[in-house]
Amino acid sequence: MQLFVKQLNWLLKSRYSIIKKKISKAQHQLPFNGFENHQNSIKFVNFISDEDLQELNNILDWNCFVVDSNGRRFGNQAYREKRNKPQVIPDKRISLMDEYFSLADKHVLEVGCFEGIHTIGLSKYANQVTAIDGRIENVVKTIVRCSLFGYHPTVFKLNLEEDLTEHLDLLSADVMHHVGVLYHLKDPVKHLLELGKYIRQGVMLDTHYASEEQVDDVYEHNGKKYSYKKHREEGYQDVFSGMYDYAKWLKLDDIVSLLKESGFNQVEIVEQRNERNGSRVLLMAQKS
Fold first, then answer.
1. Is the dihedral of CA 107, 62, 243, 275 positive or negative?
2. Do the beta carbons of residue 94 and residue 73 sit within 8 Å?
3. Which of 64, 98, 205, 259 could share a disulfide with 178, CB 3.0–4.6 Å?
4. What is the pLDDT of residues 67-116, one digit of tens each?
5. pTM metric for this prediction
6. Residues 255, 200: Cα–Cα separation, whole Å
């Protein structure tokens, strides 16, 4: 009974949070045009009418936006405080990734493609891009946005928490773009240990991690114990959350060790930073 009450309480809080964000989005609408910064030449958007672009913006529940060459908004903010500015393409981490891995002749796998912003950036550099996401709505948005930019990556729905054995051929790539996903997983150890099975060269990983002071629990995988911070998530209904009600944030030392155990024996920490939600790291991991 106590467990049921706890789960019901979590569900009610989660629903309330999602509704609150939707109300915020509706009450604080962005202008449609007049954006001067971060404009993009969007192949199949630049020449369409304002009416058509506004209809496109309303067909899907966009949670981020870009700006075309005419200063018009393609997409929408998530809510008042999140993704309320034009997204930059390409993201600086993708340019850095290209410096490390020379993407021009590479096949890149992007996990957690969201609404295609990074997918487009990767498509500008890489020979081939495969993008996956655990939410079908993100798959649709990524396909739509990339197509209108003139790119056609392979995009499909796949939950990284599931058994990936039957999907390794679909995931096989030279390099992985791994941004903002690891800290949403409930079994990040298993995930990291499996990367070497389908990624041939390297991984660009950008993730939150737990400090020693934040660690509050331990779990076991293959007989080895890993300390972690239990982080509450809002589940599938919130596109900025993991797929379940909580995730495990690993310590940075364990993340590095797991990558090496998976075959990426050269791990370089490029940047560490403190953000609103906690400590975060950008690293490049390569097989020798």
1. positive
2. no
3. 205
4. 999 999 999 998 767 789 999 999 999 999 999 999 999 999 999 999 99
5. 0.90
6. 19
